[in-house]
Amino acid sequence: MDTFTDLVAEGEAAPVDGWDFSWFAGRATEQRPSWGYARLIAARLATAGRALDLQTGGGEVLATAAAGTPPPVLVATEGWPPNAALARDRLAPLGGTVVEASENDPLPFPDASFDLVVSRHPVTTDWAEVARVLAPGGTYLSQQIGAGSVHELIDFMMGPQRVGPVRDPATHRAAAEAAGLTVVDLRDEWLRMEFFDVTAVIVFLRKVIWTVPGFTVAAYRDRLRALHEQITAEGPFVAHSRRFLIEAHRPA
User: Fold this and answer.
1) Best exposed site among 107, 115, 140, 240 by fewest CB in 10 Å?
2) H or E element that contains 202
């Protein structure tokens, strides 16, 4: 069995549930945004009365941020049942509850239910629904994946791809304002990523499923071998993630 085959087998076997990225230690790196999202929402959660985390994944970030002073009402949504189960286990000690809800469905909460809504890397943002569930004077704070993120890896695997405006920060500002919210902060950064072997790439693509839609090792084996050969000859594969932070308020 050659090295490539071993690395592929390891990548296919690695667990990909939840949003814990500790598996990548020593296999890949990603620069962190300067604003420190977890730290920001921890400060907001400490003073919130009713907080909602949208598309929480396995609840990893929310549980860490709320550990100090969880709000009296702490709710999260998650659409993938395995992640929802992980989130329930993590948030239960903090008094948190998890509601299974698809990112494409209306939020299953009454109007003006929360004074704080947060979301890290949501698949989609329904700004009208965010505005609806925010109480007057409430805040939405989110770190999002920007347009063109990891385009180097996407293009390597799929060929050159057009970058659309859906994830552009300016598009989100306009959508938030159209929903009646006031955008008070919008920051945008490009961050260096390195993949040290093809295993890390496989696990990343299995975990972050929208990067290469429909990714399987079988379908992309030739491109994975080419990537393995490039890393072996030239060193880590370098890409750049794009992140933006957006904060919007519902007028009081």
Assistant:
1) 240
2) helix 198-207
Q: Which amino acid is at 201?
A: V
All residue ranges of the chain with pLDDT < 50 are: 1
Indicate the helix (H) or strand (E) that contains 87: helix 81-91
Rounded alpha-carbon distances, angstroms, from residue 76 to 9, 47, 67, 132, 243? 34, 17, 15, 16, 22
Rounded to an integer, what distance in angstroms lies between the CA atom of residue 65 and that of residue 39? 7
Beta strands 50-53; 73-78: pairing state: parallel
Beta bridge partners of 36: none
CATH number for the segment(s) 3-249 = 3.40.50.150
pLDDT digits (tens, 9 = 90+) for 79-114: 999 999 999 999 999 999 999 999 999 999 999 999
